[in-house]
Design goal:
Blueprint lengths: L3 H9 L2 H4 L5 E4 L7 H14 L1 E5 L5 E3 L5 E4 L1 H8 L1 H16 L3 E5 L8 E5 L1 H6 E2 L9 E5 L2 E14 L2 E11 L9 H11 L6 E12 L12 E3 L2 E3 L4 E4 L16
Antiparallel strand pairs: 1-11, 2-8, 3-4, 4-6, 5-6, 7-8, 9-10, 10-11, 11-12, 13-14
Length: 252
């Protein structure tokens, strides 16, 4: 028998989900929504907002295992020039400094050839593949932290019904940005360490059927979900980390 809390949640679930007509639906956010819940949703989005670093355009051969790549600097220097080969190796070496790769010499393959193997962190943060499909990038935690919700607006927005303006800051460099080269590369993304930045995001209340509910999601939680009706698919969220300052708190 359902508990009162389960019954209340069932009644709050959109009718199309309750009836089995849809696996998920976005419901409007209530006007009396808790500021604490809003802040928690924004905080979670900031925690999930990574800094992504593309792999350079380099000549890679497959290694004995799928998690390792042989950088053919010898062939790059021959066909593309020594400057291109040197820059490509420097970029790959930056990933070693960040803890995403280990590196070893492969002189039996060619002069100056290196093999780069993914570390546990590298496997965790890698998206895409150098062998086809999406271009490979490392997307690692940014360390951005919420400071304050500065304004909320209710309305009919493309990615939800509650637009939230907030301030945030990165109080320190990410743990993986260990070198000056790494910090220089991400400076435009993360901004000045300790400075207060402005952001915005639109939220809705996302409901799932019990069969479709992901294991790591609370049903009916506040989420930013942008839906392309023409393509009939979710396209991500509208988190903007470079929004204009909005300094007054409002519930309208």
């Amino acid at each position: 028998m359902a508990t009162p809390a389960q019954q209340a949640q069932f009644m709050r679930t959109p009718r199309e989900v309750r009836s089995g007509g849809a696996d998920q639906a976005i419901a409007p956010v209530e006007r009396d929504v808790s500021r604490i819940e809003v802040a928690a949703a924004v905080r979670a989005l900031l925690d999930q907002s990574p800094i992504c670093l593309s792999w350079p355009a380099v000549w890679l051969n497959e290694a004995a295992v799928r998690s390792a790549y042989v950088l053919r600097t010898d062939l790059m220097a021959r066909d593309w020039g020594p400057d291109v080969a040197r820059e490509g190796q420097q970029r790959m070496d930056e990933f070693v400094d960040m803890g995403f790769f280990t590196k070893r010499e492969r002189p039996e393959v060619g002069a100056g050839v290196q093999e780069y193997a993914l570390t546990q962190l590298g496997r965790q943060y890698l998206h895409g593949s150098p062998y086809g499909g999406d271009r490979p990038v490392f997307c690692a935690p940014s360390g951005r932290k919420l400071i304050e919700i500065t304004r909320i607006e209710f309305g009919d927005f493309p990615c939800g019904s509650l637009r939230v303006y907030f301030t945030y800051s990165a109080q320190d460099w990410p743990s993986w940005a260990r070198t000056e080269a790494a910090r220089t590369r991400i400076a435009d993304d993360i901004g000045a360490i300790g400075s207060v930045e402005n952001g915005s995001v639109t939220l809705g209340r996302l409901w799932y059927s019990q069969a479709a509910l992901p294991s790591d999601v609370t049903n009916g939680s506040l989420q930013s979900v942008c839906y392309d009706a023409q393509a009939q698919r979710v396209t991500g969220n509208d988190l903007d980390l470079h929004a204009q300052a909005m300094t007054s708190v409002s519930g309208s």
